[in-house]
Amino acid sequence: MKKDSMAAVMSHKDRKKSFWVRYIAQIDLQLMVIPALVLIFIFSYLPMYGVLMSFQDYDIFGGFFHSPWVGFKHFKMFFDSPDFWNVMRNTIVISFLRLLIGFPAPIILAIILNEVAHIRFKKVIQTISYLPHFLSWVIVSGLAMSILATENGSLNILLEKFNLINEPINFLSIPNYFWGILISTGVWKEIGFSAIIYIAAIAGINPEVYEAASIDGATRLKKIMYITIPGITGVIIIFMILAVGDILSAGFEDILLLAKNPVLQDVSDVIDTYVYRVGIKNSRFSYAAAVGLFKSIISIALLTIANAVARKIGRSLW
Amino acid sequence: MEINKKSMFLILALMLSMSVLFSACSKGDEASNQNKVVDQGDAGNFILGETPLNFSFYGNYDWYTMNPWGQDPATKWIQENKKVTVEAIQSGGTALQKFNTMIASGKLPDVIWGDRGTDVEKLRMAGKLVPLDAYLDKYPNLKKWAGDKTLNMLRSEDGKLYQFPNWYTKRPMGNGGYAINNKIYKDLGSPKLETFDDLYSYLTLVKEKYPKVVPFEVGLSGQGIDFLYAGMSEDRTVGHLMNRAIPDGNVLKSLFSDPVYRESMVFANKLFKEKLITQDAITQTRDQVKEKINKGMVAIYGDFTTTVMGTEANSILKAKDPEDGYTMIWPFHKEGVDPKKVWVNEFDSLGWNVSVITTAAKNPEGIFAYLDWLTGEEGERIIFWGPEGTYWKGTSESGAPLYTETYANDVEERTKLMAIWDTFQWAGNTTFIDESKSVNEMNLPEDKRDWATVSQTNVAWKTSFDATEFGNINPLPDSDEGIIMQQIADIADQVRAKALFAKDEQEVIALLDKAEQDAQNAGYEKLLKFQTQKWQENIKKINE
Asked: How far is B174 from chain A (nearest CA, A)?
């Protein structure tokens, strides 16, 4: 019976039927999709009217209907603001570094773990590496700050013990170190969890392919190069496209918590922290909405471009 | 059969989507129910203690959680004897969001308790607050204890009073200042510690003899650095730095071009560069500070909470070695500056924060009557020390509760209860509480007295500047001046931190020059003009 209905859905004749007939025919599948659609509609589409706020001088008492329209005033203010170029530069540089280092890191971990023969050892490593994902940034940053402290900081003590430095280094107050600290704590926190998806993808590769390669005399490295990596390219590209769409989300909590020293503002101020510091904290809702909308538009454009590029090699999202 | 399966899926899907809808709506329902719960009471002939009074109360701070009403001896007593019940609306750690949500959804609590200034002004301008003037004479405690001057200062632009003050005072208060580590001080031969030169040579000596010890611990966000400004000239106070405006005659002038500020930053840079100030000054957390001072790893400790943090540190060190511990000393000053005019603390007669009654309240008079009772002698005794019989019995002539044996012996339980009662203290009467405390403290032998009280009475309160005239001089954040102020605040925070890390004096000056220029480009003059005008209005109100 099931086979029949599947065949009916797939049949050529069926395609010509109206949308609703086809919809009813696969209702059991569609019903599973509906809750997700409802969720997206309520929490992503419904609140979207709020972007109109960015064209108003929003008055929290009057609400949406009693606030005056001001056109592009808030966008202009953001572009003219002395912080604009600095914020944009930091956002792009930090995102780019994340893409360059944070993105391949879990893939490399997944490939390395795949090569570990000792199952129990592999499981232990996997568990240890994904646990930090469940710690909140407040805890991770507290940990980072006490490790990196000048007085009694573990890292400085270690470096001094090995005679690598004569005087403790003030890691959290020197702008040159900030990007490195930010990216490496991020990698430490997320590497194990992000690797899970790639480990799953690798597990999906047919083991017979490896066996055949072994018989042909392929080395381990060759197997990684010609079987493992091509086997998970599809997954990598999908995540790559999504990461490009996120390029203006350089981070929020981590930066807010790690860049406490105002000296770092020149290198740490990104769009999201700027929205929080200048917009939300001062109740400038329209300004915050305008900057947020600007960010979304650029992100959509980037996502579309990345997808178009991926389509050229036949692996696009849509 | 297939149809059955399908309809089952359909029902499942419907249930799922409905539950999503319900969860989205339930928040709104809760809020509207809260309003309905509030009991009316007859507004006209209200008598506190006879007419039952219920109101909802929101504390606008991330850290604030009100304890459940009626679960402890004090609020139980109030519930039984005054027929007052307060329903808490908690901030849940996100006060800003909660506050904005309540406004945007039009569902305000009956009472909002929070900082003066921006939020109160926003509510007032939108006509959401109840003026209190009509009740001032009928319920006399607030008028009696706060006085007309303070109430005038609290009045809004329209001349009406909307704010019920908390911890208002007629006498100086504060917790900041320098404390020295007794053991290290004695070891190093107890040198004279009065001027900045003394400070510098003492810190150098500490660094030489105790390489592991932080010579000068400046606390959270480098607060102690601001003390250097206060000591550089007479009548300079730490508050100038917070407002980023220096009074000169009857105008407020730029912080960055002020020679005294510049001199203090050059000195701070020198101390920092020579590693005499903690190198984690700007980035460290409160726990890091605590660890250092509790272990006695600092020679001089100075920030705005010295009497608070110092009390614990002092008792930990004293427990190990009676010779150890901390002593608060008179603030350092530049050679030639009158030490009696160095102010490392500030107080204003308006106190800490305020309660406002919103138009959502069904019985504003009742709420005022309760707050007024709370700020009076009886209310303060109950909410600070609990109902009569446990920790106090009988009162002195001035109304101070007289401590019982239980008060001295039952420290653990008492500390716990007093912390709970502190969450109900919305109309703190500093003058009454402090006088009551000292009545009891003076009955104790000298070595039994509280370290904080001794430090406050001997030093901290005497170095506290009356800054009432500088209250509320800052603009609303979404106004033109407010946008400028946010930029100036950014510039000031950055230059202060950068100046510490500068390599020499020239660089400090160059940084301050650049800050001055950036500030002028951002519209600093306009902001200073606004602040000057507000300040002058305040002076007029005080002298009225």
From this structure: 26
Residue to mutate among A283, A284, A287, with most B CBs inside 10 A, is: A283
ipTM above 0.95, yes or no: no
Q: What are the angstrom distances between the C-alpha of B188 and each of A228, B207, B216, B301? A: 69, 11, 15, 17
Contact B17 A38 (CB under 8 A): yes
Name the residue type at position A128: I
pLDDT in tens, A94-132: 999 999 999 999 999 999 999 988 999 999 999 999 999
Domain ranges of chain B: 47-170+351-444, 177-347, 480-543
Which residues numbered 50-79 in A keep a CB inside 8 Å of some CB on B? Answer: 60-61, 63
Q: Residue B265's beta-bridge partner residues?
A: none
Residue given tokens 């109304």 in the structure block: B399
Question: Comparing B47-170+351-444 with B177-347, is the CATH topology the same?
Answer: yes
Q: Map out the domains of chain A with their CATH numbers.
A: 1-55 (no CATH), 72-312 (1.10.3720.10)
* pTM (two decimals): 0.79
CB pairs under 8 A between A and B: 112
Say if residues A283 and A59 touch (Cβ distance below 8 Å).
no
Is B9's CB within 8 Å of A170's CB?
no
Q: How many Cβ atoms sit within 10 Å of the Cβ of residue A164? A: 8
Looking at the domain B47-170+351-444, which fold is it?
D-Maltodextrin-Binding Protein; domain 2 (3.40.190)
Q: Which of residues 170-199 of A touch B (CB under 8 A)?
A: 170, 172-174
Nearest Cβ partner for A35 among B6, B16, B283: B16
Is residue B246 within 8 A of residue B252, CB to CB? The reply is yes
pLDDT digits (tens, 9 = 90+) for B14-52: 444 444 444 444 444 444 433 433 334 444 678 999 999
C-alpha span between B10 and A44 (Å, rounded):
24
Instruction: Specify the CATH number of the domain B177-347.
Output: 3.40.190.10
